[in-house]
Amino acid sequence: GVGAALAQLGSKVLLIDGDCGLRNLDIVLGMSDRVVYSFADVAGGAVPLADAMACHPDMKTLYLLTAPVALPALSERGMEQLAVQAEEAGFDYLLIDGPAGLPAELSFLAHIATQAIIVTSTDRVCVRGAERCARKLEEEYCIQRIRMVLNRVRPQLISHGKSGNIDDAMDEAGLPLLGLVPEDVDLISCSNSGRSIHAVKHDGRGSRLCEYRPAAQRRAY
Protein backbone atom coordinates (compact mmCIF):
# COMPACT_ATOMS: atom_id res chain seq x y z
CA GLY A 1 0.00 0.00 0.00
CA VAL A 2 2.67 2.54 0.97
CA GLY A 3 4.83 1.63 -2.03
CA ALA A 4 1.93 2.02 -4.45
CA ALA A 5 0.92 5.31 -2.84
CA LEU A 6 4.50 6.61 -3.19
CA ALA A 7 4.42 5.66 -6.87
CA GLN A 8 1.16 7.55 -7.34
CA LEU A 9 2.79 10.56 -5.71
CA GLY A 10 5.43 10.48 -8.46
CA SER A 11 8.28 8.49 -6.91
CA LYS A 12 10.05 5.62 -8.63
CA VAL A 13 9.67 2.65 -6.28
CA LEU A 14 11.17 -0.84 -6.19
CA LEU A 15 9.30 -3.32 -4.00
CA ILE A 16 11.05 -6.48 -2.83
CA ASP A 17 8.97 -9.33 -1.45
CA GLY A 18 11.23 -10.52 1.36
CA ASP A 19 8.80 -13.08 2.77
CA CYS A 20 10.00 -16.38 1.33
CA GLY A 21 7.42 -18.27 3.37
CA LEU A 22 4.26 -16.56 2.13
CA ARG A 23 5.61 -15.05 -1.12
CA ASN A 24 2.38 -13.27 -2.01
CA LEU A 25 3.15 -9.63 -2.81
CA ASP A 26 2.67 -10.30 -6.53
CA ILE A 27 -0.88 -11.49 -5.79
CA VAL A 28 -1.71 -8.41 -3.72
CA LEU A 29 -0.45 -6.16 -6.53
CA GLY A 30 -2.18 -8.13 -9.29
CA MET A 31 1.16 -9.00 -10.91
CA SER A 32 1.24 -12.80 -10.71
CA ASP A 33 1.51 -13.14 -14.48
CA ARG A 34 4.42 -10.70 -14.72
CA VAL A 35 7.02 -11.98 -12.27
CA VAL A 36 9.71 -14.38 -13.47
CA TYR A 37 12.82 -13.71 -11.40
CA SER A 38 13.27 -13.21 -7.66
CA PHE A 39 15.53 -10.96 -5.61
CA ALA A 40 17.73 -14.02 -5.02
CA ASP A 41 18.47 -14.18 -8.77
CA VAL A 42 19.75 -10.59 -8.64
CA ALA A 43 21.61 -10.88 -5.32
CA GLY A 44 23.18 -14.14 -6.51
CA GLY A 45 24.44 -12.51 -9.70
CA ALA A 46 22.40 -14.67 -12.09
CA VAL A 47 20.32 -11.84 -13.56
CA PRO A 48 20.79 -8.04 -13.52
CA LEU A 49 18.13 -6.00 -11.79
CA ALA A 50 17.04 -4.35 -15.05
CA ASP A 51 16.03 -7.76 -16.46
CA ALA A 52 14.61 -9.23 -13.25
CA MET A 53 12.24 -6.54 -12.01
CA ALA A 54 8.64 -6.44 -13.23
CA CYS A 55 6.77 -3.19 -13.89
CA HIS A 56 3.24 -2.74 -12.58
CA PRO A 57 0.71 -2.69 -15.45
CA ASP A 58 -0.97 0.54 -14.31
CA MET A 59 1.60 2.36 -12.18
CA LYS A 60 4.60 2.75 -14.45
CA THR A 61 6.98 3.88 -11.69
CA LEU A 62 6.27 0.86 -9.47
CA TYR A 63 8.43 -2.26 -9.88
CA LEU A 64 8.51 -5.62 -8.11
CA LEU A 65 11.08 -8.28 -7.29
CA THR A 66 9.36 -11.32 -5.85
CA ALA A 67 10.68 -13.74 -3.24
CA PRO A 68 12.27 -17.06 -4.24
CA VAL A 69 10.35 -20.30 -3.74
CA ALA A 70 13.23 -21.59 -1.62
CA LEU A 71 15.83 -19.31 -0.10
CA PRO A 72 19.35 -20.08 -1.39
CA ALA A 73 22.57 -19.16 0.36
CA LEU A 74 23.02 -15.42 -0.16
CA SER A 75 25.80 -13.09 0.89
CA GLU A 76 25.49 -9.63 2.35
CA ARG A 77 27.69 -8.49 -0.52
CA GLY A 78 25.09 -9.74 -3.00
CA MET A 79 22.33 -7.76 -1.30
CA GLU A 80 24.56 -4.68 -1.30
CA GLN A 81 25.06 -5.06 -5.05
CA LEU A 82 21.29 -5.28 -5.51
CA ALA A 83 20.88 -2.00 -3.62
CA VAL A 84 23.60 -0.39 -5.74
CA GLN A 85 21.85 -1.45 -8.94
CA ALA A 86 18.59 0.02 -7.64
CA GLU A 87 20.31 3.33 -6.93
CA GLU A 88 21.93 3.36 -10.37
CA ALA A 89 18.52 2.68 -11.95
CA GLY A 90 17.21 5.90 -10.40
CA PHE A 91 14.85 4.49 -7.78
CA ASP A 92 13.73 6.94 -5.14
CA TYR A 93 12.69 4.18 -2.75
CA LEU A 94 13.62 0.54 -2.27
CA LEU A 95 10.98 -1.00 0.00
CA ILE A 96 11.39 -4.51 1.39
CA ASP A 97 8.24 -6.29 2.52
CA GLY A 98 9.84 -8.38 5.24
CA PRO A 99 8.55 -11.56 6.87
CA ALA A 100 6.56 -11.54 10.08
CA GLY A 101 8.41 -12.26 13.30
CA LEU A 102 12.17 -12.73 13.53
CA PRO A 103 13.11 -15.37 10.92
CA ALA A 104 16.64 -16.05 9.68
CA GLU A 105 16.21 -14.15 6.40
CA LEU A 106 15.66 -10.94 8.34
CA SER A 107 19.43 -10.60 8.75
CA PHE A 108 20.40 -10.12 5.10
CA LEU A 109 17.29 -8.06 4.35
CA ALA A 110 17.98 -5.70 7.26
CA HIS A 111 21.61 -5.43 6.19
CA ILE A 112 20.72 -3.03 3.36
CA ALA A 113 17.97 -1.15 5.24
CA THR A 114 18.41 2.38 6.57
CA GLN A 115 14.90 2.77 8.01
CA ALA A 116 12.12 0.41 9.08
CA ILE A 117 8.34 0.49 9.13
CA ILE A 118 6.76 -2.14 11.35
CA VAL A 119 3.20 -3.06 10.38
CA THR A 120 1.08 -4.48 13.16
CA SER A 121 -2.45 -4.41 14.55
CA THR A 122 -3.71 -3.00 17.84
CA ASP A 123 -3.97 -6.51 19.35
CA ARG A 124 -1.63 -6.75 22.34
CA VAL A 125 0.03 -9.96 21.14
CA CYS A 126 0.90 -8.31 17.82
CA VAL A 127 2.08 -5.10 19.50
CA ARG A 128 4.46 -7.07 21.72
CA GLY A 129 5.87 -8.77 18.63
CA ALA A 130 6.33 -5.37 17.00
CA GLU A 131 8.25 -4.12 20.03
CA ARG A 132 10.59 -7.14 19.96
CA CYS A 133 11.20 -6.77 16.23
CA ALA A 134 11.97 -3.06 16.63
CA ARG A 135 14.50 -3.74 19.39
CA LYS A 136 16.24 -6.38 17.27
CA LEU A 137 16.47 -4.04 14.28
CA GLU A 138 17.85 -1.30 16.49
CA GLU A 139 20.32 -3.33 18.54
CA GLU A 140 21.61 -5.84 15.98
CA TYR A 141 21.35 -3.89 12.72
CA CYS A 142 21.74 -0.31 13.99
CA ILE A 143 18.53 0.88 12.31
CA GLN A 144 17.63 3.97 14.30
CA ARG A 145 14.62 5.33 12.43
CA ILE A 146 11.81 2.86 13.11
CA ARG A 147 8.13 3.76 12.84
CA MET A 148 4.86 1.88 13.08
CA VAL A 149 1.79 1.47 10.88
CA LEU A 150 -1.33 0.08 12.54
CA ASN A 151 -3.18 -2.21 10.15
CA ARG A 152 -6.77 -3.50 10.15
CA VAL A 153 -7.92 -0.75 12.49
CA ARG A 154 -11.58 -1.22 13.51
CA PRO A 155 -12.89 2.00 15.09
CA GLN A 156 -16.18 0.46 16.28
CA LEU A 157 -14.41 -2.31 18.19
CA ILE A 158 -11.98 0.20 19.68
CA SER A 159 -14.79 2.52 20.79
CA HIS A 160 -16.56 -0.40 22.50
CA GLY A 161 -13.40 -1.54 24.23
CA LYS A 162 -13.26 -4.80 22.28
CA SER A 163 -9.95 -4.04 20.59
CA GLY A 164 -6.74 -2.40 21.74
CA ASN A 165 -6.66 1.34 21.20
CA ILE A 166 -4.11 3.32 19.23
CA ASP A 167 -2.51 5.17 22.15
CA ASP A 168 -1.93 1.94 24.08
CA ALA A 169 -0.36 0.33 21.01
CA MET A 170 2.04 3.25 20.62
CA ASP A 171 2.96 3.16 24.31
CA GLU A 172 3.53 -0.60 24.43
CA ALA A 173 5.54 -0.73 21.22
CA GLY A 174 7.49 2.41 22.08
CA LEU A 175 7.31 3.50 18.44
CA PRO A 176 6.10 6.67 16.72
CA LEU A 177 3.02 6.23 14.57
CA LEU A 178 3.43 6.63 10.81
CA GLY A 179 -0.13 5.84 9.76
CA LEU A 180 -3.38 3.90 10.17
CA VAL A 181 -4.97 1.47 7.71
CA PRO A 182 -8.65 0.65 8.33
CA GLU A 183 -10.02 -2.87 8.05
CA ASP A 184 -10.87 -3.44 4.37
CA VAL A 185 -12.86 -6.43 3.12
CA ASP A 186 -12.04 -5.45 -0.48
CA LEU A 187 -8.43 -6.52 0.07
CA ILE A 188 -9.61 -10.12 0.47
CA SER A 189 -11.71 -10.06 -2.69
CA CYS A 190 -8.92 -8.41 -4.68
CA SER A 191 -6.37 -10.99 -3.53
CA ASN A 192 -8.68 -13.83 -4.55
CA SER A 193 -9.43 -12.30 -7.95
CA GLY A 194 -5.85 -11.27 -8.75
CA ARG A 195 -6.74 -7.57 -8.97
CA SER A 196 -4.67 -4.84 -7.38
CA ILE A 197 -6.35 -3.09 -4.45
CA HIS A 198 -5.52 0.28 -6.03
CA ALA A 199 -8.03 -0.40 -8.82
CA VAL A 200 -11.02 -0.75 -6.49
CA LYS A 201 -13.32 2.28 -6.42
CA HIS A 202 -15.55 3.31 -3.56
CA ASP A 203 -18.46 5.71 -3.89
CA GLY A 204 -16.64 7.82 -6.46
CA ARG A 205 -13.84 8.59 -4.00
CA GLY A 206 -11.21 6.97 -6.18
CA SER A 207 -8.55 4.49 -5.23
CA ARG A 208 -8.39 2.93 -1.79
CA LEU A 209 -4.78 4.06 -1.82
CA CYS A 210 -6.07 7.36 -0.45
CA GLU A 211 -5.85 5.64 2.95
CA TYR A 212 -2.14 4.96 2.42
CA ARG A 213 -1.22 8.39 1.07
CA PRO A 214 -0.81 10.13 4.47
CA ALA A 215 1.70 7.47 5.51
CA ALA A 216 3.42 7.69 2.13
CA GLN A 217 3.67 11.47 2.36
CA ARG A 218 5.16 11.28 5.86
CA ARG A 219 7.50 8.52 4.66
CA ALA A 220 8.75 10.82 1.92
CA TYR A 221 10.17 13.37 4.39
Automatic annotation (TrEMBL):
Species of origin? human gut metagenome
Q: Name one GO biological process term.
A: negative regulation of cell division
Record-linked InterPro entries? CobQ/CobB/MinD/ParA_Nub-bd_dom, P-loop_NTPase, ParA/MinD_ATPase
Pfam family of this protein, just one?
Answer: CbiA
Q: List each copy of the CobQ/CobB/MinD/ParA nucleotide binding domain by range.
A: 2-196
One annotated GO molecular function is:
ATP binding
* UniProt xrefs under PANTHER family: SEPTUM SITE-DETERMINING PROTEIN MIND HOMOLOG, CHLOROPLASTIC, SEPTUM SITE-DETERMINING PROTEIN MIND HOMOLOG, CHLOROPLASTIC-RELATED
UniProt-recorded name of the protein? Septum site-determining protein MinD
Q: Which UniProt keywords apply?
A: ATP-binding, Nucleotide-binding
GO CC annotation: cytoplasmic side of plasma membrane; cytosol
